[in-house]
Amino acid sequence: MIKINKKILTCGALAILLGFTSCEDYLDVKPQDKLNEEQVYNDLYDADAAVVGIYGKLMGLAGKYIVLNELRADLISPTRNSSPDIEELNTHTVSKDNPYANPRDFYEVINNCNDALKNFRVMLENNKIDADEFNERYADIGTLRSWLYLQLGMHYGEVPYVTEPIEKLEDLQNENLYPRLRLEDLIKELINFTEGLPYTDPYNQNSSLVVDVDGYNTAKFFINKEVVLGDLQLWNGNYTEAASHYKNVMETSSNGTDSYYYDTYRIIYNSPNTVDLGVEYQRYREQDARALINSNTDGWGSIFARDQDDRWNQEWIWSLPFDSNFAPENPFINLFSIQSGDYVLKPSQRAIALWNNQNQLNGFPYDARGKIFSYLDVGGNPVVKKYLYNFLSEETQMPVDVFNRDGRWFLYRAAKLHLRFAEAANRDGHHKLADALLNYGIQNAYTVDGVEDVSDIEQTNLPFPYNFDARKGDFPFYRGPWYRNGGIRGRAYVERAEVVGDSLIAIENNIIEEAALELAFEGNRWGDLVRVAIHRNDPSFLADKVYEKLAAEGNPEANSVRARLMSRQNWFLPFKWENQED
Amino acid sequence: MISNYNHKLILVAVLAIVSVISCSDPWDDHAKMVDANLNEKLNIRINNTPETSDFGALLIETGYDSILSSAKTYTVWVPTNEAMAQVDASVLADMEDKQLFVLNHIALTSYSSVTDKDTVSVAMLSDKYLEFKNGNMIAESNVLTADQYAENGLYHIIDKALTPRRNIWEYLQDEAASNAMSKFIMSLDEFDIYPSDSLPKAMAEKSEEIMFADSLTNSYLLNVYNLNNEKNKYTFFLLEDEGYKNQVETLKPYLNKGTTDSTTTYASYFAVRDMAFHKSYSRENLPDALTSRFGVKVPVNKNRILEEVKLSNGILFKMSTVDVPLEKRLLSTVIEGENPSGFSQGDKRINTFYREKASPSGEPFSDIMVQNHEVPKFGIYYTANNLYSTTYRVYWRAVNDIQENTFQQALRIGGEFQADGTVANPIASLPYTDVPPDDYSEVFIGEFTLEEAGNLDLITLLAANTAVNGQNTLTLDYLKFVPVIK
Fold first, then answer.
1. Taking all residues of chain B, what is their mean pLDDT, rounded to a whole number?
2. Looking at the structure, do residues B172 and B316 belong to the same domain, yes or no?
3. Contact B353 A288 (CB under 8 A)
4. Would you call B353 and A363 a contact, using CB atoms and an 8 Å cutoff?
5. In what order do the strands lie in the sheet with B391-397?
């Protein structure tokens, strides 16, 4: 019996011991490399960290953003190195396991946005941040989410609109749990939400998020809320509202104390012997092709090459830098470089032809924005250059340092803003204004030859948002805020785009073609084609352009692709992906 | 106790079974190498295969069995003993020949007969390239047994030995004693066709094959094609002596160099330089005309083929003759306006425009225009190489598209700089010719005659003799010198 007792005792003691040690504390170890919910969102700096973290995550979408928006449209083609997945996008025959068609990455960032938005609200309730701090951050992340949804909408046609954080992203594929919105309905929801956000300006210059870090100023990292509102309203067909939002950004320097009052976001003409962002030849040597101003600090190409200086800030509205020293890696060198990348994508023959159909004002039979600035020829292979300016040597066009892969994601700039404003104005009945901004600027279009007193001319005499004062006179003296505006084509030194036929359609065609010449490879093309095709209720607007790209390169599927794209439902990618572990 | 004993028995039995099962891990069994072939190196496998033992013996004799026993991966195309028996004795005359013979059967890395490419160009250790077609043929030998494997690679058994072939250059070297054309080409080892040939020749000799594997020691290799290069394929026409001499004689009047010897040398060079072509064409595939590196379209008459010689880097045709008509042989010289060699004064860059324009029909062109320079008789200098000793008809295309008025410019051929910077004793001064606005056509502007063939270092496009801007403009898309057949 004693023996038995001993055994029981031992067992009991062990059990008790186990019971103690297995208590909560023992098993509930906090991970040392991650934060849990109670540890974040405690003060303003946690909120800032969340914002910065979301933008860091967003940058992981850069490569996909360019691939989807350009390859599915008409300005980019696959190369001989491209994978079948890339070919599928090119011919609009995407299978459901195509990794580029997987919307999950977008929803990961959206889920992060939703989580941050929810917690910002909690922080405000608990007085961990004040109302101003809340408004800035909430509006920023809220707008970014709307921008992401607009991207999803234009690529997938119908997507679930989720505004609260969810546990399992895979559930999004279940239409019973998350019903899907059509693109048009989605945009209406996005307008409702985004117009209701409490703050529309960029972060205040004194904000804790606007700092210089690792050689970059962060002010232009963050999305510009007004341009997103403008884009949403433009997609929705509310042209006056769209123009109003765009105009607010165009007038950025009118409010406040910008020392470049006449220059910021106004697309100014080229002046001799100054640093400009236009296509410009050395003065009096316009007939000399070798006198083209073409360096990383001056000329049209410098838009993509220059450091974040004053001129950079006068053009760029939203841009995120990639730095070799930090993740995520710059995806563009791999996509585009033939010398040390994979050279997956190249300019399409159609894009090249568009540029070569232009004439410069000196009679040169090509648009310098094409073969000089947007792409280059490496041993007979066209290579997208816009993303490689800092990677290639100015002199030799060879990589300077293959390990230095700094670069930028180009998201929004003044030229795009002006083209979008012109599109809205044109649709709103202001054809002359739209044509002026597209061609040679306000003053050129509204002046009267030989009149010295400009008091009553050189301005639109229209109410906001179509009010532009470009007066430049000396007797009496005028310098209207828009007197330096030189127009998109004026800045690019090309002959004016003529209006043939119906003003609305002709000018809109000109604007969309100009967007190709000016903004090629910057990830706007698919959206432009879908938007205009919807506004015109004419699928051929999109289908024909994709057809021309494929036909120009002898793709045997050109005709069948055109036929497919004539039905709107075939524009969009399948909203499906293979489930994977979280 | 019995039941207890039984229990123990069962326990022991179970333990025994467990130990037996656990002794043999099925995964280990799966991964274990059971194929004995994979334990043997290539040289052993080849030696042990009865039908390839002769080649195996040769491997040992040459000492190359050692490389096939190394850790690198090789592919060997092994001739059968019957195939070895048919190899000409001269091919295996001495040790050097034997080594080359063996190396011509071995390639680094593995080339399986299963591949998605129909033809693979294989670099053999002999530095020759052989074509492995569809996995069942290499060069002209059929694969009898494919994909035999060993620890360090593959071997295929073939029905015919891969006797190493000479390349075109080696063939020409061997023919030099009996063939005048080959002899002339080999003489270009010593003789420099162009003065600039001497430097690379000297470099090649000095480097002794260390810096440049295919050292270019001959003016033909330097200026035409490197026929010593195994990596490319060429077609070459080797003429019989009579046909060759006829060609040289027809060219002599156009390549007058002053002395008979020089004239013969250059006429010979111009005759032979158009006899080599890029890519190899077998007799069946020969087109009606082949274009030489210099743009001469050489008509091909298959009836003149005496012999087709297959060589390691292409095909050489022995021909009785190849008649190239002078109209095809003598090439026009085109000088692009935007590639000047200099200017009469160097301070007018600001007035010099390198333009990129298009004609009204949309055809793009590049040209040069010098405008508003205020210098009478301002000159743009050009050079031209390899001109013939004959009369040339001269044309230009000069586009005056930005002025309203007609201006004049002239062309001066040759001349010597004087101490005061002027040019004296030109070969010809063509008259001032109108350049009317918006004329995009090619205009005939005159003729000149060269007594000696060679280069022109000074061709001058001269502005009008006036300081008046607009009158002294110069513009030039291109000059074209068309040789006249005597």
1. 89
2. yes
3. yes
4. no
5. B333-336, B478-483, B391-397, B443-449
